[in-house]
Write a structure and sequence with these properties.
five-stranded mixed sheet, two-stranded antiparallel ribbon, alpha+beta
Amino acid sequence: MDTKSKKSNKFVYKSVFLLCVVSFMATVLGIVFSVFLVNSNGLIRGDFWALYFPNDYHSTYLAQVWAKNEAELILFRNQISLNLGIALLCAAVAAVSFVYLCTAVGDRDEDGKVILKGVDRVYTEIQLCVIAAMLAAGGSLFVKLTLLALHDASPANGLLREGGFAINLYEPSVIAVILACVTGTISAYAGLWMCMSCIRKIKARRFVKQSMIGKVFMSLFETLYSGGSLMRKIMLVAILACLLSATIVLLPVVLVLVFVFMPKRVRKYEEIKNGVNEVRGGNLEYKIPVTGKSELDRLGAGINDISQSSKTAVQNEMKNQRMKAELISNVSHDLKTPLTSIVTYIDLLKTEGLSSENATEYLDVLDQKTGRLKQLTEDLFEAAKASSGAMPVKREKVDMLSLINQGLGEMDQKIKASGLEVIVKAELEKHCVWADGQLLWRVFENLLGNVLKYAQANTRVYIDMSEQGAADNPKLVVMDIKNISRQALNIEANELLERFKRGDESRATEGSGLGLAIAKDLVKLQNGWLDIKIDGDLFKATVMLEKAG
């Protein structure tokens, strides 16, 4: 849900909340005013039903009143009916708005869980006491102040008199009205606020857990039952069943509990037994249903964890076997290619002799291939040392931005020859990290070399440097290198960090497939992280190192 929708929902909720408070107060006020009008009229002597059923009172004094003041009593009855009708309408509005508040209260997070607020941490018993106090004490005070205001404002000679019903407002009655409104508003608002908090806790399933009684029972349950051994639990249940069944009244209760809970435990045991058989048969995908926190549920969850761990171990072993096979194949291919060329050109030199006009060309090729073989061998040794952690590391304060600018300067000719445009963006003039300068330079050299080998010609390469962490205390320096790949990257990002893996599956480039793997291990030796992300043809390498203050 977007921000605008959330603000709109909050505004609607607050408006309905206020409407519920006002309509509830109007309901009470209408009822109080109607009762006051009936009771304050000495002619009808507080008999409400006589207004609507006068024929039942012919033998009383009220029959004489009806005979003398029938027209006025009818008007008075209509006024009472109007007041009660308005009170009934306000009650309906209050009820509908309360139902809406109960359904709308409680914002949810991304996982669908109800978000609790500060007031929800108050014990449930305290909240219920506040609700009761607002309804009883606050409501009683509101009614008394309202009756006091009406009594002070009404004429002394009753409501039925010449000129009709008159209200005389003066200072004491105004003060009583103000106090009644303030008291009623505070009581209704606080009571409804606490009600919504209780509803929110019910939705979050925290109503009992957040109560003092619930906490005491949960603590006793954890101490006596959940925290003990299985034997203790069985003994406690057996003793409790014996005590309860010792009385004729509670014996049926025990029998009902046995017939209700025992079949569930038996079914749970059968599910666990079936799950063990499935896992033993090699079906590591099977999951035992876990619906609670009982001993059998925990046992089922433990078996599920074991099967998941076994499944993960099997997958990792299969992946390792595949990687070993690919590693042997790739090493063989990368070593065989230059060796084949060397053997071929040596044979040509033996055949044609050093005096041949092609001898110089053959020697150039031999030099190129031997250099390639030497570089591949050095990369293999470096990868082995980096992954084993045997490489010495001397961490010191290093300006990461200065180092990357130095690397770009040394590779300037190669960058221009490739047609790439490198754009460096940094938040600060210096980004210092704790790292080994030589190893960090080797990381940058591998990453920039990777860009030169595989980036699309005549495109831009972005190098962004920033700091992450709290605004007043950043902990990490982050460098992102982004470029567009020349070849389609139909490969998972994590696979590019494996040894001898290339985005160029045809292996037509001069890369060994060890650059990123070596860079990752070197960054890890410096207590940092290297991450790779692929989005279509966009290749992004991220280096994160600890900031040096």
